[in-house]
Specification:
Radius of gyration: 23 Å
Largest sheet: 9 strands, mixed
Helix content: 25-40%
Shape: globular
Number of strands: 25
Strand content: 15-25%
Number of helices: 15
Oligomer: single chain
Distance between the termini: 58 Å
């Protein structure tokens, strides 16, 4: 059989080194599945924001030679130039496929865009199709080598001015066991070059347990509208944090078995006789962490470091579990690093707008625990910024007032958060059009009779809104 080429393009941070890099699990897993189950040999191509798009386009067409380009796109970070690149590849005769979180709604456009033209129109003209959910849903299309519209699970099309789609399949563990950690490339020096992976990820769970809870809440209007809407609130039904489009997209699918996680672990590259550091993809990893370490020990695997991402309240609720895990890790000479705790804010009012379900006191209790644990396990526990951790801190937000910021600064100074907790730079609140906050923003626009600009799939609340009375 003559194999065909395929590329899967994804956004990478500009600080990613060109020679060695963190792995990109979602894209690499999808590429691995395609390579193992179709006639296509799929490689991942990470593109940072500084890349020259004209040169990249030429390199992509050169990569395919006389073959029709088949190019997937995933986790594009709202970067317009990557959507434009997809459109140019499609217009040049290639097949372009949009995947990743919120693929369907980014393909289709923001709700109500036909009636309200300022809203995000979607990128269906840039992509031949989109796939919502597991990547293996592409197998029938790639195996038939036919990209004509087909009613298949998870596949989204645009035909005769209509969006055609079928519900996606559920995730299956058998497709989450193998990742090729040698299929990542970057665009560097006008060429597609392979990258050596020095840090990886392992899937422990899909989605977030916080997204299981349906909650009705009432969010304030933005601070700059407080004079007009001082007592008004907007009612929302939420699953997960109000800003999280991934929770809205996936919800909580569940945890994988220890056997599946171990299968992934065994395939990780090694350095100096140990598995390279990896992040365990599980929003609440602490309850199962001791069991995973026992399995690692039983398999006689040597592991350098396990990175965890979780919430402050789940950390506080599982103190006994993490101490049990650290006792094991100390014996096994494995470092446990709390790579990112989702504090998000140190203002009780803004935490409520985020629907975090936690209090300021919980955030501070988690910080006290991390500092105390570092004293007890100095070598095998890491949590601080100087140890490479990057904790969640969202600022600015639409609700900020001088009083809020003054109160946050007082908490930061009193507890010395700038020494070990705060990231070098906070992240502004990003509102994806299909997140719960997207519903909130559209309600504000309708009630106040103005329109916020759109930056592709994001609602640019930080820009000056424009009066649009005539379209409401």
């Amino acid at each position: 059989m003559r194999f065909k080429r395929m590329l899967l393009i994804t956004n990478v941070h500009p600080d990613i080194p060109k020679i060695s890099s963190h792995g990109l699990l979602g894209a690499q897993l999808a590429a691995s599945l395609i390579t193992a189950n179709t006639p296509y040999r799929c490689q991942v191509l990470g593109v940072d924001p500084g890349a020259n798009m004209d040169r990249l386009e030429k390199s992509i067409f050169a990569y395919f030679g006389n073959e029709q380009p088949v190019v997937g796109f995933s986790n594009l970070g709202g970067r317009e130039e990557l959507f434009i690149l997809a459109e140019r590849i499609r217009n040049g005769g290639g097949v372009t496929i949009l995947g990743g979180p919120q693929a369907k709604v980014d393909f289709s456009g923001e709700i109500g865009w036909q009636r309200f033209p300022h809203r995000f129109h979607g990128w269906r003209n840039a992509f031949s199709l989109a796939v919502q959910g597991p990547g293996e849903q592409l197998f029938p299309i790639l195996n038939r080598n036919s990209f004509e519209p087909q009613h298949l699970p998870g596949i989204v099309w645009h035909q005769n001015n209509k969006i055609i789609s079928s519900p996606p399949n559920s995730w299956q563990e058998k497709f989450l066991q193998f990742v090729d950690w040698s299929n990542l490339n970057v665009f560097c020096d006008d060429d597609i070059q392979p990258v050596n992976i020095i840090q990886a990820q392992v899937v422990g769970a899909i989605g977030c347990p916080w997204a299981r809870r349906l909650k009705t809440t009432f969010l304030d209007y933005p601070a700059n509208l407080s004079d007009t809407y001082s007592h008004a609130k907007i009612r929302l039904s939420l699953r997960g944090c109000s800003f999280c489009d991934v929770a809205q997209d996936k919800g909580f699918i569940g945890r994988l078995s220890v056997q599946t996680v171990m299968h992934q672990l065994k395939q990780l590259p090694e350095y100096d006789g140990k598995k390279i550091p990896f992040e365990l993809i599980d929003e609440n990893p602490l309850p199962g962490l001791p069991r995973l370490l026992v399995a690692v020990q039983d398999e006689k695997l040597r592991v350098q470091r396990i990175d965890l991402v979780t919430r402050a309240d789940w950390l506080v609720k599982n103190l006994e579990k993490i101490h049990d895990a650290l006792e094991l890790a100390q014996k096994m000479d494995v470092q446990i690093r709390l790579a990112s705790i989702g504090f998000e804010s140190f203002s009780p009012r803004i935490l409520k707008q985020f629907n975090k379900g936690i209090t300021l006191e919980t955030n501070l209790a988690a910080i006290r625990f991390m500092r105390e644990t570092k004293i007890r396990f100095p070598k095998h526990f890491a949590y601080s910024r100087r140890e490479g951790c990057h904790h969640g801190f969202i600022h600015p937000t639409p609700w900020d007032t001088p009083e809020d910021w003054q109160a946050i600064q007082a908490v930061i100074q009193h507890h010395g958060l700038e020494k070990d907790i705060l990231p070098a730079h906070s992240l502004p609140l990003i509102i994806h059009h299909a997140s719960p906050l997207g519903i909130w923003m559209r309600a504000i626009e309708y009630n106040a009779r103005f329109a916020y600009p759109r930056q592709n799939s994001w609602i640019a609340w930080w820009d000056e809104p424009q009066p649009k009375v005539h379209i409401f």
